Amino acid sequence: MSSKQGGKLKPLKQPKSGKKEYDEHDMELLQKKKDEEKALKELRAKASQKGSFGGTGLKKSGKK
């Protein structure tokens, strides 16, 4: 038998990173992002209830 191993070697597992330390500026940005996502979600829900905008849209006449 040869000393070389065949096949693909598995990558070594990376150690899990600890929890990040956030300062006040980072916390503000995270809160702002959460608020924006919440507002967008509410708008999407509201828009889906109403249906399409403007009803039928542009009507084309039969004349040419």
TrEMBL record:
Q: Where is the composition biased (Basic and acidic residues)?
A: 18-45
Q: Where is this region: Disordered?
A: 1-64
* Pfam hit, one: TMA7
Q: What is this protein called?
A: Translation machinery associated TMA7
Name the source organism: Arabidopsis arenosa
